[in-house]
Amino acid sequence: MSTTPSTADRLRTLFQPVLRGGTPIRLRAWDGSETGPADAPALVIHDRRALRRLLWKPNQLGLARAWVAGEIDVDGDLYELLLRLATVVWNEDGGGDRPGALRLLREAASLGVLGPQPPPPPEEVRMPGRAHTRSRDRRAISHHYDVSNDFYRLILGPSMVYSCAYWRDDESTLDVAQRDKLDLICRKLGLRKGQRLLDVGCGWGSLAIHAAREYGVEVVGVTISREQADLARKRAAEAGLADRVEIRLQDYREVTDGPYDAIASVGMAEHVGPAVYAAYAAILFRLLRPGGRLLNHQIAARTDTTAVDADDPSFINRYVFPDGQLVPLGTTATLIEDAGFEIRDVEALRPHYALTLREWSRNLEAHWDEAVELAGLGRARVWRLYMAACALAFETDRIGVNQILAVRPHEDGRDPLPMTRAWMMP
Ligand SMILES: C[S@@+](CC[C@H](N)C(=O)[O-])C[C@H]1O[C@@H](n2cnc3c(N)ncnc32)[C@H](O)[C@@H]1O
Protein backbone atom coordinates (compact mmCIF):
# COMPACT_ATOMS: atom_id res chain seq x y z
CA MET A 1 0.00 0.00 0.00
CA SER A 2 1.35 3.41 -0.95
CA THR A 3 2.20 5.79 1.89
CA THR A 4 2.32 8.80 -0.42
CA PRO A 5 -0.31 11.28 0.78
CA SER A 6 -3.06 12.05 -1.72
CA THR A 7 -3.47 15.54 -3.19
CA ALA A 8 -6.46 16.06 -0.89
CA ASP A 9 -4.38 15.10 2.15
CA ARG A 10 -1.63 17.48 1.10
CA LEU A 11 -4.20 20.23 0.70
CA ARG A 12 -5.58 19.55 4.14
CA THR A 13 -2.09 19.84 5.61
CA LEU A 14 -1.63 23.07 3.75
CA PHE A 15 -4.91 24.59 4.93
CA GLN A 16 -4.41 23.46 8.51
CA PRO A 17 -3.17 26.87 9.77
CA VAL A 18 -6.12 28.61 8.13
CA LEU A 19 -8.68 26.07 9.26
CA ARG A 20 -7.81 26.70 12.85
CA GLY A 21 -9.77 24.58 15.28
CA GLY A 22 -10.44 21.71 12.92
CA THR A 23 -11.46 20.80 9.42
CA PRO A 24 -15.20 20.25 9.58
CA ILE A 25 -15.65 19.85 5.83
CA ARG A 26 -14.66 17.38 3.17
CA LEU A 27 -12.03 18.42 0.66
CA ARG A 28 -11.97 17.00 -2.85
CA ALA A 29 -9.00 17.76 -5.09
CA TRP A 30 -8.87 18.12 -8.87
CA ASP A 31 -7.62 14.54 -9.23
CA GLY A 32 -10.66 13.17 -7.37
CA SER A 33 -8.83 12.36 -4.12
CA GLU A 34 -10.82 13.21 -1.04
CA THR A 35 -10.38 13.69 2.70
CA GLY A 36 -12.55 14.68 5.65
CA PRO A 37 -15.78 13.54 7.31
CA ALA A 38 -17.96 11.55 4.88
CA ASP A 39 -21.21 13.15 6.07
CA ALA A 40 -19.97 16.73 5.60
CA PRO A 41 -20.45 18.85 2.47
CA ALA A 42 -17.36 18.85 0.27
CA LEU A 43 -15.37 21.82 -0.94
CA VAL A 44 -14.38 20.68 -4.40
CA ILE A 45 -11.21 22.23 -5.78
CA HIS A 46 -11.48 21.78 -9.53
CA ASP A 47 -8.54 23.92 -10.45
CA ARG A 48 -5.30 24.43 -8.59
CA ARG A 49 -5.38 28.14 -9.48
CA ALA A 50 -7.86 28.43 -6.61
CA LEU A 51 -5.05 27.79 -4.15
CA ARG A 52 -3.32 31.10 -4.67
CA ARG A 53 -6.59 32.91 -4.15
CA LEU A 54 -7.52 30.89 -1.08
CA LEU A 55 -4.13 31.16 0.54
CA TRP A 56 -3.51 34.81 -0.26
CA LYS A 57 -6.92 35.88 0.98
CA PRO A 58 -8.32 33.04 3.02
CA ASN A 59 -11.16 35.34 4.07
CA GLN A 60 -14.19 36.09 1.92
CA LEU A 61 -12.53 37.62 -1.12
CA GLY A 62 -10.20 34.74 -1.95
CA LEU A 63 -12.95 32.21 -1.50
CA ALA A 64 -15.31 34.35 -3.58
CA ARG A 65 -12.86 34.82 -6.45
CA ALA A 66 -12.25 31.10 -6.66
CA TRP A 67 -15.99 30.42 -6.41
CA VAL A 68 -17.05 32.95 -9.05
CA ALA A 69 -14.32 31.73 -11.42
CA GLY A 70 -15.68 28.20 -11.01
CA GLU A 71 -12.35 26.91 -9.65
CA ILE A 72 -14.10 25.64 -6.53
CA ASP A 73 -17.54 24.24 -5.99
CA VAL A 74 -19.63 22.50 -3.41
CA ASP A 75 -20.85 18.95 -3.30
CA GLY A 76 -23.77 19.20 -0.88
CA ASP A 77 -25.46 22.19 0.65
CA LEU A 78 -23.66 25.52 0.13
CA TYR A 79 -25.19 27.12 3.23
CA GLU A 80 -24.05 24.17 5.36
CA LEU A 81 -20.55 24.36 3.89
CA LEU A 82 -20.33 28.09 4.64
CA LEU A 83 -21.67 27.55 8.14
CA ARG A 84 -18.91 25.02 8.83
CA LEU A 85 -16.25 27.20 7.23
CA ALA A 86 -17.44 30.32 9.03
CA THR A 87 -16.42 28.93 12.39
CA VAL A 88 -12.87 28.32 11.24
CA VAL A 89 -12.09 30.65 8.35
CA TRP A 90 -14.09 33.83 8.70
CA ASN A 91 -13.23 34.22 12.38
CA GLU A 92 -9.62 34.23 11.28
CA ASP A 93 -7.75 37.40 10.36
CA GLY A 94 -6.16 35.80 7.31
CA GLY A 95 -7.23 38.59 4.95
CA GLY A 96 -4.93 41.13 6.56
CA ASP A 97 -2.28 38.59 7.50
CA ARG A 98 0.11 38.90 4.54
CA PRO A 99 3.17 37.32 6.24
CA GLY A 100 1.01 34.31 7.15
CA ALA A 101 -0.27 34.11 3.60
CA LEU A 102 3.24 34.29 2.19
CA ARG A 103 4.36 31.47 4.43
CA LEU A 104 1.43 29.36 3.28
CA LEU A 105 2.19 30.16 -0.33
CA ARG A 106 5.79 29.03 0.17
CA GLU A 107 4.58 25.82 1.75
CA ALA A 108 2.19 25.28 -1.12
CA ALA A 109 5.01 25.79 -3.60
CA SER A 110 7.18 23.27 -1.77
CA LEU A 111 4.32 20.77 -1.82
CA GLY A 112 4.05 21.30 -5.55
CA VAL A 113 0.35 22.17 -5.45
CA LEU A 114 0.52 25.86 -6.26
CA GLY A 115 -0.87 27.07 -9.58
CA PRO A 116 -0.09 30.37 -11.31
CA GLN A 117 -1.54 33.68 -10.09
CA PRO A 118 -4.88 34.20 -11.88
CA PRO A 119 -6.53 37.60 -12.45
CA PRO A 120 -9.81 38.28 -10.61
CA PRO A 121 -12.85 37.00 -12.50
CA PRO A 122 -14.52 39.58 -14.79
CA GLU A 123 -17.54 39.86 -12.49
CA GLU A 124 -15.39 41.73 -9.95
CA VAL A 125 -15.93 45.53 -9.99
CA ARG A 126 -13.97 48.49 -8.76
CA MET A 127 -15.76 51.79 -8.90
CA PRO A 128 -13.58 54.67 -10.09
CA GLY A 129 -14.05 58.20 -8.70
CA ARG A 130 -15.44 59.54 -5.45
CA ALA A 131 -18.01 57.36 -3.70
CA HIS A 132 -21.67 58.41 -3.53
CA THR A 133 -21.74 61.02 -6.23
CA ARG A 134 -24.99 60.69 -8.16
CA SER A 135 -23.28 59.32 -11.25
CA ARG A 136 -21.25 56.74 -9.34
CA ASP A 137 -24.33 55.70 -7.35
CA ARG A 138 -26.18 55.21 -10.63
CA ARG A 139 -23.41 52.93 -11.91
CA ALA A 140 -23.26 51.00 -8.64
CA ILE A 141 -27.03 50.50 -8.63
CA SER A 142 -27.10 49.52 -12.27
CA HIS A 143 -24.46 46.85 -11.57
CA HIS A 144 -26.72 45.17 -9.05
CA TYR A 145 -30.26 45.82 -10.25
CA ASP A 146 -30.11 46.11 -14.04
CA VAL A 147 -29.24 42.44 -14.37
CA SER A 148 -32.48 41.09 -15.76
CA ASN A 149 -35.97 41.52 -14.34
CA ASP A 150 -36.73 37.91 -15.24
CA PHE A 151 -33.68 36.75 -13.28
CA TYR A 152 -34.96 38.63 -10.24
CA ARG A 153 -38.42 37.18 -10.71
CA LEU A 154 -36.97 33.67 -10.51
CA ILE A 155 -35.42 34.53 -7.17
CA LEU A 156 -37.97 36.84 -5.58
CA GLY A 157 -41.09 35.16 -6.91
CA PRO A 158 -44.20 37.02 -8.09
CA SER A 159 -44.15 39.51 -5.19
CA MET A 160 -40.99 41.11 -6.64
CA VAL A 161 -40.09 42.48 -3.22
CA TYR A 162 -36.37 42.73 -2.58
CA SER A 163 -36.17 43.24 1.15
CA CYS A 164 -36.74 41.21 4.28
CA ALA A 165 -40.21 39.57 4.48
CA TYR A 166 -42.32 39.37 7.63
CA TRP A 167 -42.89 35.77 8.69
CA ARG A 168 -45.91 35.71 10.96
CA ASP A 169 -45.93 31.93 11.36
CA ASP A 170 -44.43 28.70 10.07
CA GLU A 171 -47.22 28.34 7.53
CA SER A 172 -46.29 31.49 5.66
CA THR A 173 -44.96 31.35 2.13
CA LEU A 174 -42.55 33.91 0.74
CA ASP A 175 -45.34 35.70 -1.11
CA VAL A 176 -47.58 35.86 1.95
CA ALA A 177 -44.68 37.00 4.14
CA GLN A 178 -43.81 39.73 1.65
CA ARG A 179 -47.38 40.91 1.50
CA ASP A 180 -47.50 40.95 5.29
CA LYS A 181 -44.32 43.05 5.32
CA LEU A 182 -45.77 45.56 2.87
CA ASP A 183 -48.90 45.78 4.95
CA LEU A 184 -46.93 46.16 8.18
CA ILE A 185 -45.15 49.15 6.66
CA CYS A 186 -48.41 50.73 5.51
CA ARG A 187 -49.91 50.29 8.98
CA LYS A 188 -46.85 51.72 10.69
CA LEU A 189 -47.08 54.71 8.38
CA GLY A 190 -50.77 55.11 9.29
CA LEU A 191 -51.73 55.55 5.62
CA ARG A 192 -55.18 56.92 4.90
CA LYS A 193 -57.10 57.46 1.65
CA GLY A 194 -56.00 60.54 -0.22
CA GLN A 195 -52.63 60.89 1.48
CA ARG A 196 -49.35 61.22 -0.46
CA LEU A 197 -46.69 58.57 0.07
CA LEU A 198 -43.12 58.82 -1.17
CA ASP A 199 -41.34 55.47 -1.58
CA VAL A 200 -37.61 56.14 -1.98
CA GLY A 201 -35.85 53.14 -3.49
CA CYS A 202 -39.14 51.68 -4.76
CA GLY A 203 -37.65 48.64 -6.50
CA TRP A 204 -40.18 47.03 -8.83
CA GLY A 205 -43.02 49.05 -7.32
CA SER A 206 -44.53 46.44 -5.00
CA LEU A 207 -45.01 48.69 -1.96
CA ALA A 208 -46.30 51.56 -4.12
CA ILE A 209 -48.89 49.25 -5.70
CA HIS A 210 -49.93 47.71 -2.38
CA ALA A 211 -50.27 51.10 -0.67
CA ALA A 212 -52.30 52.61 -3.54
CA ARG A 213 -54.57 49.57 -3.90
CA GLU A 214 -55.18 48.72 -0.24
CA TYR A 215 -54.96 52.17 1.37
CA GLY A 216 -56.10 54.51 -1.40
CA VAL A 217 -53.01 56.71 -1.25
CA GLU A 218 -51.24 58.54 -4.06
CA VAL A 219 -47.71 57.23 -4.39
CA VAL A 220 -44.51 58.53 -5.90
CA GLY A 221 -41.84 55.83 -6.12
CA VAL A 222 -38.27 56.63 -7.09
CA THR A 223 -35.50 54.30 -8.17
CA ILE A 224 -32.28 54.82 -10.09
CA SER A 225 -32.49 51.44 -11.80
CA ARG A 226 -33.89 51.82 -15.29
CA GLU A 227 -35.03 48.19 -15.54
CA GLN A 228 -36.85 48.49 -12.24
CA ALA A 229 -38.58 51.71 -13.23
CA ASP A 230 -39.78 50.23 -16.52
CA LEU A 231 -41.24 47.14 -14.89
CA ALA A 232 -42.67 49.05 -11.91
CA ARG A 233 -44.61 51.34 -14.26
CA LYS A 234 -45.88 48.35 -16.23
CA ARG A 235 -46.99 46.56 -13.05
CA ALA A 236 -48.77 49.67 -11.74
CA ALA A 237 -50.58 50.06 -15.08
CA GLU A 238 -51.57 46.37 -15.12
CA ALA A 239 -52.98 46.79 -11.62
CA GLY A 240 -55.11 49.67 -12.92
CA LEU A 241 -53.27 52.12 -10.68
CA ALA A 242 -51.39 54.24 -13.20
CA ASP A 243 -53.34 57.31 -12.09
CA ARG A 244 -52.29 56.90 -8.45
CA VAL A 245 -48.79 55.42 -8.74
CA GLU A 246 -46.08 57.50 -10.33
CA ILE A 247 -42.74 55.79 -10.79
CA ARG A 248 -39.75 58.01 -11.46
CA LEU A 249 -36.25 57.20 -12.58
CA GLN A 250 -34.90 59.67 -10.07
CA ASP A 251 -32.32 59.94 -7.32
CA TYR A 252 -33.71 60.61 -3.84
CA ARG A 253 -31.57 63.77 -3.86
CA GLU A 254 -33.60 65.10 -6.78
CA VAL A 255 -37.05 64.80 -5.20
CA THR A 256 -38.35 68.30 -4.49
CA ASP A 257 -42.13 68.05 -4.62
CA GLY A 258 -42.89 67.69 -0.92
CA PRO A 259 -44.57 67.81 1.42
CA TYR A 260 -45.55 64.16 1.66
CA ASP A 261 -47.71 62.69 4.41
CA ALA A 262 -45.47 59.65 4.73
CA ILE A 263 -42.15 58.33 3.43
CA ALA A 264 -41.00 54.74 3.14
CA SER A 265 -37.36 53.85 2.56
CA VAL A 266 -37.06 50.09 2.38
CA GLY A 267 -33.70 48.49 1.70
CA MET A 268 -32.36 51.69 0.16
CA ALA A 269 -30.41 53.37 2.93
CA GLU A 270 -27.71 50.65 2.73
CA HIS A 271 -26.75 52.30 -0.57
CA VAL A 272 -26.57 55.81 0.87
CA GLY A 273 -23.23 55.58 2.66
CA PRO A 274 -22.33 57.00 6.10
CA ALA A 275 -20.63 60.04 4.56
CA VAL A 276 -23.84 61.34 3.02
CA TYR A 277 -26.34 59.82 5.44
CA ALA A 278 -26.89 63.09 7.30
CA ALA A 279 -27.81 64.77 3.99
CA TYR A 280 -30.14 61.83 3.14
CA ALA A 281 -31.95 62.14 6.49
CA ALA A 282 -32.20 65.94 6.08
CA ILE A 283 -33.75 65.54 2.60
CA LEU A 284 -36.39 63.12 3.89
CA PHE A 285 -37.12 65.46 6.80
CA ARG A 286 -37.69 68.39 4.44
CA LEU A 287 -39.95 66.30 2.21
CA LEU A 288 -42.30 65.32 5.07
CA ARG A 289 -45.07 67.50 6.49
CA PRO A 290 -44.98 68.16 10.24
CA GLY A 291 -46.60 65.16 11.94
CA GLY A 292 -45.73 62.95 8.94
CA ARG A 293 -44.07 59.57 9.39
CA LEU A 294 -40.91 57.98 8.04
CA LEU A 295 -40.40 54.21 7.93
CA ASN A 296 -36.71 53.44 7.39
CA HIS A 297 -36.07 49.71 6.89
CA GLN A 298 -32.32 49.07 6.83
CA ILE A 299 -29.72 46.36 7.32
CA ALA A 300 -27.31 47.06 10.16
CA ALA A 301 -23.79 45.91 10.91
CA ARG A 302 -23.06 44.83 14.45
CA THR A 303 -19.94 46.99 14.53
CA ASP A 304 -18.70 49.81 12.34
CA THR A 305 -16.41 48.24 9.74
CA THR A 306 -16.27 51.05 7.19
CA ALA A 307 -12.56 51.72 7.81
CA VAL A 308 -11.67 48.01 7.56
CA ASP A 309 -13.75 47.60 4.39
CA ALA A 310 -11.84 50.40 2.66
CA ASP A 311 -8.52 48.58 3.21
CA ASP A 312 -9.74 45.08 2.66
CA PRO A 313 -12.80 45.03 0.41
CA SER A 314 -15.26 42.26 0.94
CA PHE A 315 -16.88 39.90 -1.53
CA ILE A 316 -20.10 41.88 -1.15
CA ASN A 317 -18.36 45.13 -2.08
CA ARG A 318 -16.47 43.82 -5.06
CA TYR A 319 -19.16 41.61 -6.56
CA VAL A 320 -22.58 42.34 -5.18
CA PHE A 321 -23.20 45.84 -3.83
CA PRO A 322 -20.38 48.17 -4.86
CA ASP A 323 -20.37 51.11 -2.43
CA GLY A 324 -23.01 49.52 -0.21
CA GLN A 325 -22.10 50.21 3.41
CA LEU A 326 -23.57 48.93 6.63
CA VAL A 327 -23.40 50.77 9.94
CA PRO A 328 -24.72 49.83 13.38
CA LEU A 329 -28.34 50.61 14.29
CA GLY A 330 -27.19 53.18 16.85
CA THR A 331 -25.32 55.17 14.19
CA THR A 332 -28.38 55.24 11.94
CA ALA A 333 -30.69 56.18 14.81
CA THR A 334 -28.43 59.08 15.80
CA LEU A 335 -28.27 60.40 12.24
CA ILE A 336 -32.06 60.22 11.90
CA GLU A 337 -32.54 62.03 15.20
CA ASP A 338 -29.94 64.63 14.28
CA ALA A 339 -31.99 65.50 11.19
CA GLY A 340 -34.85 66.48 13.52
CA PHE A 341 -36.95 63.29 13.56
CA GLU A 342 -38.40 61.76 16.70
CA ILE A 343 -37.93 57.98 16.67
CA ARG A 344 -41.08 56.31 17.96
CA ASP A 345 -40.48 52.65 17.32
CA VAL A 346 -37.72 50.23 16.31
CA GLU A 347 -38.47 46.66 15.30
CA ALA A 348 -35.58 44.26 14.78
CA LEU A 349 -36.31 41.67 12.08
CA ARG A 350 -33.02 39.76 11.89
CA PRO A 351 -34.46 36.20 11.91
CA HIS A 352 -36.96 37.26 9.25
CA TYR A 353 -34.18 38.14 6.83
CA ALA A 354 -32.41 34.82 7.39
CA LEU A 355 -35.63 33.02 6.39
CA THR A 356 -36.18 35.32 3.42
CA LEU A 357 -32.69 34.75 2.08
CA ARG A 358 -33.00 30.99 2.50
CA GLU A 359 -36.14 31.16 0.34
CA TRP A 360 -34.42 33.28 -2.31
CA SER A 361 -31.49 30.83 -2.34
CA ARG A 362 -33.86 27.90 -2.75
CA ASN A 363 -35.63 29.67 -5.62
CA LEU A 364 -32.33 30.37 -7.35
CA GLU A 365 -31.13 26.79 -6.99
CA ALA A 366 -34.50 25.41 -8.14
CA HIS A 367 -34.29 27.51 -11.34
CA TRP A 368 -30.55 27.29 -11.81
CA ASP A 369 -30.37 26.63 -15.56
CA GLU A 370 -32.80 29.41 -16.35
CA ALA A 371 -30.94 31.78 -14.03
CA VAL A 372 -27.66 31.04 -15.79
CA GLU A 373 -29.28 31.65 -19.13
CA LEU A 374 -30.67 35.00 -18.02
CA ALA A 375 -27.73 36.41 -16.06
CA GLY A 376 -24.71 34.38 -17.20
CA LEU A 377 -22.90 31.73 -15.20
CA GLY A 378 -20.53 34.08 -13.34
CA ARG A 379 -23.32 36.37 -12.21
CA ALA A 380 -25.54 33.48 -11.19
CA ARG A 381 -22.66 32.08 -9.12
CA VAL A 382 -22.17 35.49 -7.46
CA TRP A 383 -25.85 35.62 -6.49
CA ARG A 384 -25.83 32.04 -5.24
CA LEU A 385 -22.89 32.70 -2.93
CA TYR A 386 -24.16 36.11 -1.83
CA MET A 387 -27.58 34.83 -0.84
CA ALA A 388 -26.29 31.82 1.06
CA ALA A 389 -23.59 33.89 2.78
CA CYS A 390 -26.03 36.65 3.75
CA ALA A 391 -28.53 34.12 5.11
CA LEU A 392 -25.72 32.83 7.27
CA ALA A 393 -24.69 36.34 8.34
CA PHE A 394 -28.24 37.07 9.56
CA GLU A 395 -28.60 33.65 11.11
CA THR A 396 -25.39 34.00 13.10
CA ASP A 397 -26.03 37.61 14.16
CA ARG A 398 -23.21 39.17 12.16
CA ILE A 399 -25.73 41.60 10.69
CA GLY A 400 -29.29 42.63 11.55
CA VAL A 401 -32.16 44.52 9.95
CA ASN A 402 -34.41 47.10 11.58
CA GLN A 403 -37.51 49.09 10.86
CA ILE A 404 -37.22 52.54 12.39
CA LEU A 405 -40.48 54.46 12.60
CA ALA A 406 -39.89 58.18 13.07
CA VAL A 407 -42.06 61.29 12.91
CA ARG A 408 -41.33 64.82 11.89
CA PRO A 409 -42.57 66.53 15.05
CA HIS A 410 -45.10 69.35 15.05
CA GLU A 411 -43.54 72.63 16.09
CA ASP A 412 -45.66 72.78 19.27
CA GLY A 413 -44.58 69.25 20.24
CA ARG A 414 -48.09 67.83 19.73
CA ASP A 415 -47.88 64.02 19.54
CA PRO A 416 -49.11 62.73 16.17
CA LEU A 417 -49.16 59.06 17.21
CA PRO A 418 -51.46 56.98 19.42
CA MET A 419 -50.22 56.27 22.94
CA THR A 420 -49.65 52.52 22.57
CA ARG A 421 -48.33 50.23 19.84
CA ALA A 422 -51.62 48.35 19.54
CA TRP A 423 -52.52 50.25 16.33
CA MET A 424 -49.49 48.74 14.60
CA MET A 425 -50.49 45.15 15.17
CA PRO A 426 -52.37 43.15 12.54
C1 LIG B 1 -32.84 46.48 -2.10
S1 LIG B 1 -33.73 47.46 -3.26
C2 LIG B 1 -35.25 47.61 -2.37
C3 LIG B 1 -36.40 47.82 -3.28
C4 LIG B 1 -37.77 47.92 -2.61
N1 LIG B 1 -37.82 48.94 -1.62
C5 LIG B 1 -38.17 46.58 -2.04
O1 LIG B 1 -38.26 46.47 -0.81
O2 LIG B 1 -38.44 45.68 -2.82
C6 LIG B 1 -32.99 49.08 -3.12
C7 LIG B 1 -33.62 50.16 -3.97
O3 LIG B 1 -32.98 51.42 -3.68
C8 LIG B 1 -32.84 52.12 -4.89
N2 LIG B 1 -31.81 53.17 -4.73
C9 LIG B 1 -30.53 53.02 -4.34
N3 LIG B 1 -29.90 54.22 -4.34
C10 LIG B 1 -30.82 55.13 -4.73
C11 LIG B 1 -30.79 56.53 -4.91
N4 LIG B 1 -29.68 57.24 -4.75
N5 LIG B 1 -31.93 57.16 -5.28
C12 LIG B 1 -33.08 56.46 -5.50
N6 LIG B 1 -33.16 55.12 -5.34
C13 LIG B 1 -32.04 54.47 -4.96
C14 LIG B 1 -32.48 51.04 -5.90
O4 LIG B 1 -32.66 51.52 -7.21
C15 LIG B 1 -33.49 49.97 -5.46
O5 LIG B 1 -34.74 50.26 -6.06
Features:
426 residues; alpha/beta; Rossmann fold; seven-stranded mixed β-sheet; four-stranded mixed β-sheet; 11 strands; 45% helix; methyltransferase; EC 2.1.1.79; lipid metabolism; Cyclopropane-fatty-acyl-phospholipid synthase; S-adenosyl-L-methionine
Give the strand tally. Answer: 11
CATH topology of the largest domain: Rossmann fold
Instruction: Output the helix-strand order.
Output: HEEEHHEHHHHHEHEHEEHEHHHEHHHE
Q: What structural class do the secondary elements suggest? A: alpha/beta
Per CATH, the class of the largest domain reads Alpha Beta
In order across it, which strands form the biggest sheet?
A: 7-6-5-8-9-11-10
What's a quick, concise take on this entry?
With 426 residues, the protein is an alpha/beta fold.
